[in-house]
Amino acid sequence: MRIAVLIKQVPDSDCVKINEKDGTIIRDSAGNVINPLDLNALEEAVRLKELLTGTITTITMGPPQAEFALREAIALGADNAVLLCDPAFAGADTWATARTIVSFLKKDGPFDIILTGAKTTDGETGQVGPEVAALLDVPFATYVSRAEWQENSVTVYRSVEEGIQIQSLPFPCLLTVLSNLNETRMPTLAGKKKGRRYEINTLGLADLGLNRDEVGLSGSATRVCQIFHPKVTRETEFYMGKELENGIDRVISILREKGII
User: Fold this and answer.
1) Region 87-104: what's the mean pLDDT?
2) Which of 38, 85, 161, 243 lies most in the core, judged by the most C-beta atoms within 10 Å?
3) Residue 64 main-chain phi, psi, to 5 deg
4) φ and ψ of 113, to 5 deg
5) ∠ Cα 42 138 149 (to 5°)
6) What is the mean pLDDT of residues 205-233?
7) Whole-prediction pTM
8) How far are the Cα atoms of 10, 18, 29, 86, 108 from residue 121, in angstroms, in the given order?
9) How far is CA 242 from CA 58, 104, 175, 239, 247, in A?
10) Which of 125, 116, 121, 124 has its CA nearest to residue 16?
11) Domain coordinates in residue numbering, the chain
12) Is the CATH number of domain 2-214 3.40.50.620?
């Protein structure tokens, strides 16, 4: 069995900076942290490998320092690590990101299972996983909180607004997972040594057979046009002591003016 885990290096929330010209995150100065939900996806892959045997390939798209996230993935139990890195990939939206990842999955595949976090802390869109599945034309399930693995299929429990939805998917398929799927493990000393010594496989635009207008900002269907910091202003009136009744009357008057009551 071949398992692919899509991970993303996300900025440390204390180090986030935005390029106000093009609306992209300046990742060169950000911390190297694996997206938390992607850690749950990796943990599930390791458990699946222990259950059914197989190999785990972790893939990420990002700048050169993203290799630190991949080394951590190796330390946690992944067998292979691939970095999709090229200046042409910069500024990609979810669609251009999915297209780039799919080009590798097709090149190195097929994979029986593809796992990734339901969303990332720096985007919160939850779109890349389903877009990858759509481009590969494989079934997928999102927001998976429980998975029961069989030899050629998986039964998943999806946490949705209405409650829990149960689905059965054949292999190959893609799952995006939530944090309550499992408890992530800590890397062992042997794992850390393996991750530190591992030779990351880095692929660029030419290696994937893509054109420059298909990737990065040029290949993005959406882009940030403007960034601004909202200014919150309030007009405050204080009523204390004997004036409380006047304050209540004032609140009622404002609510009536706004048509709320």
Assistant:
1) 94
2) 38
3) -55, -35
4) -135, 135
5) 50
6) 85
7) 0.80
8) 7, 15, 17, 23, 28
9) 67, 72, 61, 8, 10
10) 121
11) 2-214
12) yes
